[in-house]
Specification:
- The chain is an alpha/beta fold.
- The protein contains 14 helices and 13 strands.
- It has helices at residues 16-19, 27-32, 49-63, 74-77, 86-102, 117-121, 130-145, 158-166, 183-200, 225-233, 238-242, 285-296, 314-333, 376-387; strands spanning 9-13, 67-71, 105-111, 151-156, 207-213, 217-219, 250-254, 258-261, 264-265, 302-307, 338-344, 363-365, 372-374.
- The strands form 3 sheets. It has an 8-stranded parallel β-barrel with strand order 1-2-3-4-5-7-10-11, surrounded by 8 helices.
- Strand 12 and strand 13 (372-374) form a beta hairpin.
- Helix 7 runs parallel beside helix 9 and helix 13 packs parallel to helix 14.
- The radius of gyration is 19 Å and the shape is globular.
Length: 390
C-alpha cells in the first residue's frame, strides 16, 4: 500500500471553453468560425457543463474524489472591455459553492488559454496593456474567491500560449515539433502572472501559482543532443519553472515525453504505444515533471494540475494512471512537497484544434443528449482517493 500525505487533493480538471459550451465572446470561438480555420470542428455546446455542472460535480464527489479544478471564463465575465457581467460572476460563485456543498475543494484557474474577443483584437498578449488588463480582471474575480477557495492557478500553460503565439500550429498543444515561442508574449504572461499574484495576495490564505506543461524533453545519446536539449527545452519549459520560484505552488501538467536529437525534437518512434493524440504512452511523465519543477523553482510546492491520456480503451487509462501515481509517490518519498493530483479530464471534452475525437475523460458525454456515463476509471480513481493510497 502506497499512502499519500494527509490532506492530499485527489481530483479532476476541466477548462471552461472545453466543457461549458457557447463561449461566443472568446477569441477561440472566433477562430473556430473563421473561414479556412485549421480547427477541425467548432466547440458548439461542448459538454453543456455551464448548465450541468451540479450533476458533474456530484458524479466526481460520489466516486470519492475530493477536489475539482475548473476555470472561470474571462470572455463571459468581461465580454466587452470595462463591462462586467454580474450574472457570470454569480454563476462561478455558485460553482464554487456547489463544489463545497458536495465536498470538492475548488481549484480555480483564471485564464485557460481563451481571452475575450476585444482583448484579442487589441493585440492579445502583445498589447502593452495586457498585464494591467489581466490584473484588473483578477480584481474583478477576487470577491468570488475570498471564501472557500485555497488554490488559484493564474495562467494555464503560459509556455504553450507563448508557443502558439509564435506559430500557426494550434493542433499540436503538447507534442513533437512545437513552434518557436514568442518571447515578448512569454514576458507579458510572466508580468500578468505576477500582477495577478499581487492582487490575490490581498486575501489571507489564498495560494496562487501558474501551471506549466512539463514536456519531459530527453536528449538522445548522440553528440550535440545535450546542447540542443537546452536550446530547445529552456525557452519552452525550464524558464517558466524557474519563474515559479517564490510562488505558493506550481502546477505540473504532464502527459508524455519527447526525445531531442542534435537536429531537434524527434517524432514518436513507430514501435511504442501511442494515444489518440499521437503521444507516447509514458506514465512517468508526471513524476519527471514534478522533479523538474521542484528543482528549477527552488523547491516551490508542486501540484499535478493535469495528467491523463486520450484513449477509447478505459483499461489503458487506469493502467496509465496507476503507473503515473506510483511514480508520483516516489517523488513524495524523495521529499518533494506534492499537494495533489488532478486528473485530466473530468469529462470527455473539446480538445481545441483536435475537436471531440480525443477522449480524456473519466466521464463519457453523449454530444447529442449530454447524457453522462461514468467510466470504470472514475470509480477506480475515486477508490484510490477514499483510501488516500494506491
Amino acid at each position: 500500500m502506497l499512502t499519500f500525505p494527509d490532506g492530499f487533493l485527489w481530483g479532476a480538471a476541466t477548462a471552461a471553453h472545453q466543457v461549458e459550451g457557447n463561449n461566443v465572446n472568446s477569441n477561440w470561438w472566433v477562430l473556430e468560425h473563421t473561414p479556412g480555420t485549421p480547427i477541425v470542428e467548432p466547440s458548439g455546446d461542448a459538454a453543456d457543463h455551464y448548465h450541468r455542472y451540479p450533476e458533474d460535480l456530484r458524479l466526481l464527489a460520489d466516486a470519492g474524489l475530493n477536489s475539482y479544478r475548473f476555470s472561470v471564463e474571462w470572455a463571459r465575465i468581461e465580454p466587452e472591455r470595462g463591462f462586467v457581467s454580474r450574472a457570470s460572476l454569480d454563476h462561478y460563485r455558485r460553482m464554487i459553492d456547489a463544489c463545497l456543498d458536495v465536498g470538492l475543494e475548488p481549484v480555480v484557474t483564471l485564464m485557460h488559454f481563451t481571452v475575450p474577443r476585444w482583448m484579442d483584437a487589441a493585440g492579445f498578449w502583445r498589447n502593452p496593456e495586457a498585464p494591467d488588463l489581466f490584473a484588473r480582471y483578477t480584481e474583478t474575480v477576487l470577491p468570488i474567491l475570498e471564501d472557500g477557495v485555497r488554490y488559484v492557478c493564474t495562467i494555464n500553460e503560459p509556455n504553450i500560449a507563448a508557443m502558439l503565439a509564435g506559430g500557426e500550429d494550434a493542433a499540436n498543444l503538447v507534442a513533437f515539433g512545437l513552434p518557436n515561442p514568442d518571447l515578448q508574449v512569454a514576458d507579458a504572461l510572466l508580468a500578468s502572472h505576477r500582477r495577478a499574484r499581487e492582487v490575490l495576495s490581498s486575501v489571507p490564505g489564498l495560494q496562487s501559482g501558474w501551471t506549466i506543461a512539463t514536456q519531459d524533453f530527453r536528449a538522445v545519446d548522440e553528440p550535440g543532443a545535450a546542447e540542443m536539449l537546452h536550446e530547445y527545452g529552456y525557452p519552452r519549459d525550464d524558464w517558466y519553472l524557474e519563474q515559479a520560484e517564490g510562488d505558493d505552488f506550481v502546477g505540473v501538467q504532464a502527459y508524455t515525453r519527447t526525445f531531442i536529437g542534435p537536429e531537434g525534437p524527434r517524432p514518436v518512434a513507430d514501435d511504442v504505444e501511442t494515444t489518440l493524440t499521437g503521444w507516447e504512452f509514458y506514465p512517468p511523465a508526471a513524476a519527471n515533471g514534478i522533479r523538474s519543477a521542484w528543482q528549477k523553482s527552488g523547491h516551490t510546492p508542486v501540484m499535478v494540475t493535469e495528467n491523463g491520456i486520450a484513449t477509447a480503451d478505459d483499461s489503458r487509462r487506469v493502467a496509465y494512471t496507476a503507473e503515473s501515481l506510483r511514480a508520483i509517490h516516489e517523488t513524495i518519498e524523495e521529499g518533494i512537497d506534492v499537494r495533489g493530483y488532478l486528473h485530466w479530464s473530468a469529462l470527455d471534452n473539446y480538445e481545441w484544434a483536435s475537436g471531440f475525437r480525443p477522449t480524456f475523460g473519466l466521464v463519457g458525454v453523449d454530444l447529442q443528449t449530454f447524457e453522462r456515463t461514468p467510466k470504470p476509471s472514475l470509480g477506480w480513481l475515486g477508490a484510490v482517493a477514499r483510501r488516500n493510497a494506491l
